[in-house]
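Take a careful look at the sequence and tokenised backbone pasted below. I need to know what the token row says about the fold.
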Amino acid sequence: MKIGKLPAEMLNKNIIGKIRVKRPEVLVHSGIGEDCSVINFGNDCCVLSSDPITGSGSFIGRLAVNVSCNDIAASGAEPLGILVTIMAPESCSEEDIFELMNEINDAASIINIEVLGGHTEVTGAVNKMVVSTTAVGKGPEGGYITSSGAKRGDYIVVTKSIGLEGTSILASDHEKYLEGRMSRDQIENAKSYINKISVIKEGVIGGRLGVSSMHDATEGGLLGAVWEIAEASNKGFELYEDNIPVTSETRNICSIFGIDPLRLLSSGMMVITAKDLAPLQDALKNQGIDSSNIGRITGCSKRRVIIKGGQEINVDPPQNDELFNIKFDK
């Protein structure tokens, strides 16, 4: 099997399709494109999301905190805390675990969440540090947003730019390889993208405005996130390549490694669908968040395309992330 997330068809057949119990308290169940579960607790609802960090050798503590909390934010809820599971290889030291927890606690402090507990062990089952977090959030009953709410005619808006997480990881993990292929300033700029991966502000704004859907663009990048919204909503989409924001650092790194920036890990970019464009972009701008209108949701679920140079190109379901497809010159 290929490295990365299971394809949607395989996920439905072997994972989601095997879930038998559906509790009435659960408002949002497991499904393709739904990163969060929502549980009714009376006046409030509890929002839960879980994610591992496996593709990065750098920033794993910071990524582990932000990736799962970003999913909570994509539901328009406030993240309150995380449970952390650390699987450490036999080659690690006590200092490695100490430094990892410092990074996790620093990241948690920035976004004001508590580390609620978890599990830590050294195991021969892994050959590098693996960190998985489960984030817990709170929101008003009926006030949550799902990936399945996109409506025909909605605008598709993205914040910041694509590939932020993947660019930062590649620049940090392969810094020596990039030297001589990129300028020192570009490498440092690319590494600094790790500071932009939180989308909690975007989630609060989207929740307040009642947008139709939100999705944090993680594995599979922009195209994966938009495809998952469309799949969850049983809709189609058209994207306009010229409108998609991509920095020169991301473009250069993707060119060097022979990968597609549109399918590269993109935590830090929120995909939002909304009926009204101006109020959303104005609210984002007021918080200092750049945004771009990159397309529309369409009614035909079989038409999922990106328009390049006047031509429509079909967008396939997300496969493994481009982070796992990098190529090196001999």
In short: The chain has a mean pLDDT of 92. Residues 94-110 form the longest helix (17 residues).
